[in-house]
Amino acid sequence: MNLRRLELFVAVAEELHFSRAADRLHMAQPPLSQQIRKLEGECRTTLFVRDSRNVQLTGDGELLLLHARKVLAQHAAMVEALRQARDGDIGQLRLGFVSSAAISVLPLVVRQLRSRWPGIDLELREETTDAQIELIESGRLDVGIVREVKSVPGLTADKLLDERLIVAVATDHRLSAHASVSLNELQGERFIAFPRTRISRLFDHIAGLLHASGVEFVLAQQAIQFPTILGLVAAHLGIAIVPASLRAFVIPGLVYLDIRDPNAVSRLSMIASDEAAGSPLVARVKAVCRQTTLAESVDHH
């Protein structure tokens, strides 16, 4: 018993007229009648009672119609689900992100994905950049939003945004009245930063910027969360260089200063394995990330 014969049977059962069913199916009546007889042979029963004027379903025909509609509906749903999976409209996506991306980029990306493709099941995971690379390489993460990654063997990295870096200082700091500073004005300051063992890429990037400006990167305190770093700055333990998105944290006793140096940016990128990078599902996420970060870049300028 094939699906095509079930489709023909349902058309005749709904029309209760072979000629009308043939017109509906865009076929001649004799081949339709022949297919219904073959179906009755396969079912070993009579499905229709026919006379010169009327066509009626038998009891077995009524039973087959009930199940045939279900089978055809399930088949149509299966075909549509496969199409959606092939086109990246549905499926599970394990998305990693650095904590700072959760402040601005991630909420917009998640809202867009859920609005445009509600069939995508998002599993979100907050991890450092290095942890995300390891998880993607081991197949436990599909896509990551990371900082300071330009190239990693086996991974595809797509630039999303060069986010400005800013300086957080206490309100009574010697520089607090300035709207902006140059990196070389930070000479002699003590810094609060992530432990290099935990956030090595951003740590090294900031250290490199300071070194290029002739500023010694002297650590006063280390912390693993941005709110903690900012709180320690407000407590007069030092200053911190952080991504501009952290302006969202309004903390008493703390002000943010722009950095005038053009290289004082931190790159946000989307990474995926080379194998997964070309999949329609990852392409959906990449498109949304690019649109979102483009809007963010325009807003910040």
Based on DSSP secondary structure assignment, what is the total number of beta strands? 12
Whole-angstrom Rg: 32 Å
Order of helices and strands: HHHEEHEHEHEEEEHEHEEEHH
Low-confidence stretches: 297-301
The helix content is 40-55%
The number of helical runs is: 10
Report on the biggest sheet: 8 strands, mixed
Distance between the termini: 65 Å
Shape: rod-shaped
Which CATH class of the largest domain is shown? Answer: Alpha Beta
**How would you state the average pLDDT, rounded?**
90
Query: How much β-strand is present in the residues?
Result: 15-25%
- Give the class from helix and strand content and strand pairing: alpha/beta
CATH architecture of the largest domain: 3-Layer(aba) Sandwich
CATH fold-level name of the largest domain = D-Maltodextrin-Binding Protein, domain 2
The domain count comes to 2
Gist of the model:
By secondary structure, this protein is an alpha/beta fold.
Question: Would you give an account of this structure?
Answer:
The chain is an alpha/beta fold. The protein folds into two domains: 3-87, Arc Repressor Mutant, subunit A; 91-301, D-Maltodextrin-Binding Protein, domain 2, CATH 3.40.190. 44% of the residues lie in helices and 24% in strands. The protein contains ten helices and twelve strands. The protein has helices at 3-15, 18-25, 29-43, 59-87, 105-116, 129-137, 200-212, 226-234, 274-277, 280-300, and strands spanning 48-50, 55-57, 91-97, 120-126, 143-147, 155-170, 180-181, 190-193, 218-222, 240-243, 254-259, 265-273. The strands form three sheets. Strands 3, 4, 5, 6, 7, 10, 11 and 12 form an eight-stranded mixed beta sheet that branches. It has a two-stranded antiparallel ribbon with strand order 1-2. Strands 8-9 form a two-stranded parallel ribbon. Strand 8, helix 7 (200-212) and strand 9 form a beta-alpha-beta unit. Helix 1 (3-15) packs across helix 4. It is rod-shaped and about 105 Å long. It starts with a helix and ends with a helix. Mean pLDDT is 90; it is low at 297-301.
